[in-house]
UniProtKB/TrEMBL annotation:
<dbReference type="InterPro" id="IPR005925">
    <property type="entry name" value="Agmatinase-rel"/>
</dbReference>
<keyword id="KW-0479">Metal-binding</keyword>
<comment type="similarity">
    <text>Belongs to the arginase family. Agmatinase subfamily.</text>
</comment>
<protein>
    <submittedName>
        <fullName>Agmatinase</fullName>
        <ecNumber>3.5.3.11</ecNumber>
    </submittedName>
</protein>
<dbReference type="InterPro" id="IPR023696">
    <property type="entry name" value="Ureohydrolase_dom_sf"/>
</dbReference>
<keyword id="KW-0378">Hydrolase</keyword>
<dbReference type="InterPro" id="IPR020855">
    <property type="entry name" value="Ureohydrolase_Mn_BS"/>
</dbReference>
<dbReference type="Pfam" id="PF00491">
    <property type="entry name" value="Arginase"/>
</dbReference>
<dbReference type="InterPro" id="IPR006035">
    <property type="entry name" value="Ureohydrolase"/>
</dbReference>
<dbReference type="GO" id="GO:0008783">
    <property type="term" value="F:agmatinase activity"/>
</dbReference>
Amino acid sequence: MRFDEAYSGNVFIASSNDYEASRAVIYGMPMDFTVSFRPGSRFGPARIREVSIGLEEYSPYLDKSLSDTAYFDAGDLLLPFGNAARSLDMIGDFVKRLLADGKFPLGLGGEHLVSWPIIREMYARYPDLAVIHIDAHADLREHYEGEPLSHSTPIRKAAELIGGSNIYQFGIRSGTREEFEYARKSINFYPFDVYEPLREVLPKLAGRPVYVTIDIDVLDPSAAPGTGTAEAGGITSKELLAAIHAIARSEARIVGADVVEVAPVYDPSEQTQITASKLVREMLIGFVK
């Protein structure tokens, strides 16, 4: 993708058209080729951008504005529809370039499998990487119905690459018995809740490079019905915002992040995509130093 001309579609509110001068880069990964229930998250990145026009640029939580952070919206990657393997390679190549250019990558999904090549490139760049994973689902399967490229496998792949002791999971309330047994044995595993256990963990991550991946379905379906695999018993948007702010105020070195699994077609009220857009605003303001 060329960066000498602005993305022609809708961009996230207050984004710059100057790639070189920007510290962070927003990019979309419109892929939902391996989902196990309802497709539609490939439309998430575009709609998150579109509804951002309703946001204020100022965050009263962090007392900063989007104008304090220079960021570029690169638009959606042009992924080959139906080709998961090639799409993952393209995402990895794109993120590798952003890291080489010294940018903070903030990805919009798309299904959660898109996080796997990002984590792989982050680990190549930062050998002491830690991952904060906030989700309703463990995503620790080795395969789904025999297919290793599945939105239920990215964190298992990450654990096998960087070591489970470097992965911190929060909010998990769904998975197979085998996934939960693996998580309890091999992962820093904090099921059901997010804010309180996260607050206890963050001091341990002081100074370390950390990648943050958030699946919107960590929220209760009453707060975010627009997702492919909704799961009852989730947290509130207030708690998720508090978690983002705790990360932002911590001594961890946040090196990248993503928000995934927003599927706008299932939420005509638009509360899911509006919430996701606000999360992105807080991450831009809080994570990008």
